[in-house]
Request: fold
Amino acid sequence: MIVIVDYGLGNLGSVKNTLYKLGISSMISKSKGDIEKADALILPGVGSAKQGMENLKTQCLDKVLINEIKKGKPFLGICLGMQLLFSESEEGNVQCLNVINGKVKKFDSGLKVPQIGWNSVKQKIKTNLFKNISSRSSFYFVNSYYCSPDDKSLIIGETEYDVNFCSVLIKDNIVATQFHPEKSGQIGQQFIKNWIKLI
Amino acid sequence: MITKRIIPCLDMTEGKVVKGIQFVNFRDAGDPVVLAKQYDKQGADELVFLDITATTENRNILLDVVKRTAQSISIPFSVGGGIRSVEDMRLVLENGADKVAVNTGAFNNPRLITDCANYFGSQCVVLSLDARQVKKGRWNVFINGGTTDTGVSAIKWAKKAVSLGAGEILLTSIDTDGMKKGFDVELTKIVSKNVNVPIIASGGAGKIKDFYEIFEKGKADAALAASLFHFGDLTIKKVKNYLKDRNIPVRI
Reply:
């Protein structure tokens, strides 16, 4: 069973809908027991980093998630769910889960912030996550902040929005995307299908 | 490179999609779920759903229609109409919306924007702004479904709403709405220049070249249209191919 982690934020319903369309059963839960029993976890994301961390801590889910990730459980972080994996975020200057070393930075450019819309993902590394998805395919983004991992070799997809930023990364059992695969039409569904096959 | 978005809009009342002219004279355009699915398949970049009579009828938004529509599509979905509190917004998000548009509720209580942005993030809060030209170079904000002139400048309100936390502006020109004579390029350009968040231009699309103009001259980030797509005058694909041929970045 895939568990979509409910931390009182995020478009949980959208993620569940997409999995349902792909014929994959999942459950939305905030229970420690469900999260520990899950075969894989998805941390979705719409919201602010500060509120996100606050909610995870109030529900005591921060330690549970860190433990599950360290145990090697397949994990997909989406948008804010990607950013929360990092050491710290400039959004509210908050300490995050720190399972990936690096910072979450604000877009600081002449372009409009937040970035809202479809942008292309340049594939840096060939992996089964991109199976049947051509390089530079467009995915849907909604973000004011982006992740900057210390270890650049984790970056498997990159996107340009004045700066080149990490839009997909893999670190051991973690896959994280700045875009919303659950909102990226058929290509996004293909991406989720590919992730499911890997886990 | 980020692409310009083409967004069909479902204006809803009593569970049906309707389309009016200058916010009155509504005509039935069909079932929202059927239309939504169709637009997703045709390559729409996003979908906007506005319950246009929720405020004037003083009732809550049609959550079951929001839910059924959200379940049937795989692209982003913004919902607005009658949003007055953080709780209203949470309910809409829980039912599958990705972004929530606030209009009259935010004008009457600007703190709503800040509260929603603090909780759900700015990217989730769309300011829906209905404007009408009152004299040359001056547009006022109209609320209550376009029926009330607030006397406040549209540019001033747009700037204030962004400073309060709105992450995007859905800018509708009442003057051009439903007239099919082109978007309001002047209004869009001036608002786009004054704020640093994406602008969705709305109202007036009638011909394919209107889309080119609103991106090229109006500096819009997205263009919204309703009747043109509902009644089959144009398809999203045709619009996108036309734009691509003219070097406007679009997702094909």
In short: The domain at 5-245 of chain B is CATH 3.20.20.70 (TIM Barrel). Residues 32-42 of chain B form the longest helix (11 residues). Chain B has one domain: 5-245. The first strand of chain B starts at residue 5 and ends at 13.
